[in-house]
Amino acid sequence: MTKYLLYPGCSLESNARAYHDSLMAISEPLGLELEEIHDWNCCGATEYVGISLTPAYALISRNLALAAKQANGTRTVVAPCSACYLNLAKADYYMRESPKLGVKVNTALAAGDMHYTPGSLQIRHLLDVIMNDIGLETVKRSVVRPLTGLRVAPYLGCMVPRPDYEHRWSNPEYPIELDRVLKALGAEVIDFPLKTHCCGGHMTQIGPDVAYELIRRLVHAAAEYRADMMVTLCPMCQLNIDAYQGEMNRHFGTNYRMPILFFTQLMGLAFGKEPEELGIGKELVNARAALARIGVEVPPAEVAPAPRKPRRPKEALPMPHMPEDMEVNQ
Amino acid sequence: MTSPENSSPTERIGVYVCHCGTNIAGTVDVEDVAQWAAGRLKHRGVVIARDYKFMCSSLGQEMIEKDIKELGLTRVVVAACSPHLHEQTFRTACKRAGLNPYLCELVSIREQVSWVHTDKVAATGKAKAVVSGGVERVVHHEALEPLRVPIHPATLVVGGGIAGIQAALEIADGGFPVIMIEREPSIGGHMAQFDKTFPTLDCAACILTPRMVSVGTHPNLTLLTYSEVTRVEGYVGNFTVTVRKKARYVKTDLCTGCGVCQEKCPKKIIDEIYEAGLGYRKAIYVPFPQAVPKYPVIDHENCTYFQKGTCKACEKFCPTGAIDFNQEDEYLTLQVGNIILATGYELFDPRRIPHYGYGRLANVFTSLEFERLSNAAGPTQGRIVLRDGVTVPKAVGVIHCVGSRDRNYNNYCSAICCMQSLKFAHLVKERTGATVFNFYIDMRTPAKAYDEFYQRVLEEGTLFVRGRVAEVTDAARLAGEEGKLIIQVEDTLAGKQRRIPVDMVILSAGMQPRDDAKEVAKLFGISCSADGWYIEKHPKLDPVATMTEGIFIAGCVQGPKDIPTTVNQGAAAAARVLGRIQQKEIALEPVRASINEARCSGCRICNNLCPFNAILFHEDRMVSEVNPALCQGCGTCVAACPAGAITGTGFSNEQVLAQIEGLLMLNLDGGRRVAEKAEAVLA
What we know:
Shape of chain A: globular
Radius of gyration of chain B: 31 Å
Helix content of chain A: 40-55%
Strand order of the largest sheet of chain A: 2-1-3-4
Distance between the termini of chain B: 31 Å
Strand order of the largest sheet of chain B: 10-7-6-18-29
Helix content of chain B: 25-40%
Structural class of chain B: alpha/beta
Order of helices and strands of chain A: EHEHHEHHEHHEHEHHEHHEHH
Radius of gyration of chain A: 21 Å
Shape of chain B: globular
Number of strands of chain A: 8
Structural class of chain A: alpha/beta
Largest sheet of chain B: 5 strands, parallel
Largest interface: A-B, 24 and 31 residues
Number of strands of chain B: 36
Strand content of chain A: 5-15%
Oligomer: heterodimer
């Protein structure tokens, strides 16, 4: 078991409880030992950094100081929530870049008898850990119920791949790590062109019209691609697409019903866990119909062959060849 | 070591301090430096010290020559620019006056003093220290004689693109033997893939194929295609090159080039090289009809017979019995005097920018794919169509700077993409009447008749949007976008975001070094930049020579460039080589390393460090030896030798240590040492 310090963040205790539960359920089969940081506090979300920089970074860094103190045998903090991940990584990065900021933050932390040395911890997102530490081979080995026949649209949103401080992603504009994990589960993964586009973020509160349009684009594209559901790794994205889809439909007079689940929930299903254990059913746009497709365990041999792609006409020009690790499903 | 205050001078030294206009005199009090050297370094042997406005001018040089003759100088120190620039000038001046040129030392008070400091007092102090170091060093100099080596008249040209073709033909026409090596089955390079060439739109094949035919038939030219250099030994004038001639499985003396084998071969594969992945070829193939030589090759990896043991269709149908499945790779050893590297470039792989959709979205094409698409000999006979092979596009977007001028990929400008994109716009318009958009960052059309071509394309109605494209997507959002590729871009002139739906996107991908450029550079003992382009001896004044004597570069291997510039370089490299061959021998710098065999422990640390492959190891005696003709006197091995067994002529320990003492042991400004002064400057 590889040990990691877990920073769950507030979402995972509330609206994204399903993310937390499914993460707990899959951590054992993946060999992921997660130790929650004791007494962690708010990451500041997006607002505080916009108001006052030093207090915001001090607030974030309190978590890093706690983690560094608690780190026995590991240096890695893993955050499943993308906003939390970005804030922790950003604070660490800026303090490394600007020693002045590090001094200010540590002066503040000293009031609580705490200290954080910038760069002493690695801040990583859960998907990065699963891809690069656990590895696709382990994921594949744990699959007992392949998600064959489920068409999914991988959706990362903006905060995990960008800015890519440590160059961990295949490409910050078009990362394909989530695609590859979902493929390893046996799902049919569409090449979702909007995978890093904006979900609207907090615009649902400030300017709902803007948010509705952004949500519509995503849901529309996923529907155009005939996806059964969208799959994400961000509580904010999940909340916006799930909770505001109805209002968006009312706003535009449309009738989209695009469920969105966390990738850990699909991993749990593929690993043979029960839907209740994974928080499935907590989503507002119900995923039941989509999941009915994989509800029955079908041995791979009896799976109906995928419909043949229409034969390319004789005069058609060949497509460029893609190396295996860059390939995405159509 | 020397103790400056006590020893009596043995040499008569002249010190010459250059103003370099205001380049040096602006920051260094040069008069003071000269006066100081005349007075304070008198006891070290300085008999005269002068300053002059431009020491490198003929008047400055004559001044030095006059002093050598009249004052009987035995050593000269010039304090001026970097030795890279004028060492040769002052050495030659000394030689004219009868002094061995290697008894002259050029110390840099421009690049290392005046250009990097602003404090005049400190800079003047440092210049004095530098002069003092030069004086201490020059005392230990020895008179050296240049090495003379004969030059083999044959030249090796590596790479059969337009650069190599031009260079090879110039030398062959000059009456000297040339051997050309090409990796692919035919010469022609990238130019053979193009349809039209900018800005005159003349047909690439029409202007290239006569040259290719000349290469194939020239009496002074030996052409080895489907071959690669595997080993390079020797030095300027006397290179021994080993070439692997890959098995063609075709007897070239029997083959008539009739093409029946290609026709009958049952195995069809995508041609990733010549057709840029857009067309097919057979397992036995001639890349294109005008190929030189005309003989086909069997692609071992894809041939049914080689993979499965049966087929031999080509053999059955060959009317002259030219197929030979038993051929093996041959290794040839060639003797040449000079080498020209013209190995060209590779197209940037746009798969690395996934948000532009290449490889994901069918109707996104690379520039090279479009060249094939528009080529009358290409897979569509020149019809510009979408990837379904039939639909003619109604709107086409050309994206500039794909993989160039982008800190995520390559920082440099690929030089040809603007003009190439204009050419594409013109061809699309002419053949399909489609609306064409060009998405550019800056338009760069600097050469003869280039901007006129830009004006012409503007007048033809091509639309130009200034801004780097954010993404190419098939996710339709607005009316009119369904089924199209949408180009999302910030129009930086209008200051607004645009979404432009098109049917076809052409990515004007940049140039990058070949993926084995670094290994090839190592093989030939030359250096490449961090990007992987080969480094010329001087970026302005010696653009086709390299730091390794006898090895020249031409064309895109040195950096991105268009066809005219490539041809210029091919011709320039040939001129340099012809000049060399006609001298019949070459004088080499005597600044060389040598190994004291008695002290060499045979550890071989120096063997791999030598960037010029100049050190060989004698297995029998277990000692290393420096080949003086190959050594460039860089001093790496001298510094690395743990036994201190290697001495550099002109860089002996004695000379270097004396120079350091001269730099550090001086008392300046009433007792303050240079080191303290330097610290003060740094603080």
